[in-house]
Design goal:
alpha/beta; two-stranded antiparallel ribbon; Rossmann fold
């Protein structure tokens, strides 16, 4: 979780695998949550994003407003493309995606590299000329880059 739970407005869980982890984490952290659904409804604050590997690729988060500080929760991160698109769309809506939490990460698909390359911190570091490096993706045993093929993970978008 980001420093200080007071800085989080709500958790945003992704349909369908992210529902149980979101509800569990929200209960443990005593935070409100919302679920992004694969159902387009005429509701305020709709943010459409893509889950490219799914049969139904369009996903919708509702009640998103400028300035909201959000932690995204899902069951797994495979390619990072869903989180990358969601964080971009949340920022376009004026929301502030703080972090992403997942139960499992497939490290063979280099999702962290994609997410880190698209993060505001990475862009600021590149523009300033400071050396890169991913502060939330330490090298882990069992994999030459990050760790075993699947391991519990927390990735900041």
């Amino acid at each position: 979780m980001p420093d200080g739970l007071n800085s989080v407005d709500f958790l945003l869980g992704l349909d369908a695998g992210g529902i149980l982890p979101t509800v569990s984490l929200a209960s443990a952290a005593r935070l409100p949550y919302k679920i992004a659904w694969k159902l387009h409804l005429p509701l305020d604050g709709a943010v459409r994003f893509s889950e490219p590997h799914a049969m139904r690729t369009d996903v919708f988060a509702y009640g998103i407003a400028p300035g909201q500080r959000i932690v995204i929760v899902d069951d797994e991160i495979t390619t990072g493309r869903t989180l990358t698109d969601l964080t971009r769309r949340l920022r376009e809506a004026g929301a502030v995606p703080l972090a992403a939490a997942c139960l499992v990460e497939d490290t063979t698909r280099e999702a962290r590299d994609l997410l880190w390359s698209r993060s505001p911190r990475s862009r600021a570091r590149r523009e300033s000329g400071r050396p890169g490096g991913d502060p939330v993706a330490p090298r882990l045993p069992g994999h030459p880059r990050r760790g075993g093929a699947h391991h519990p993970a927390r990735v900041r978008p």
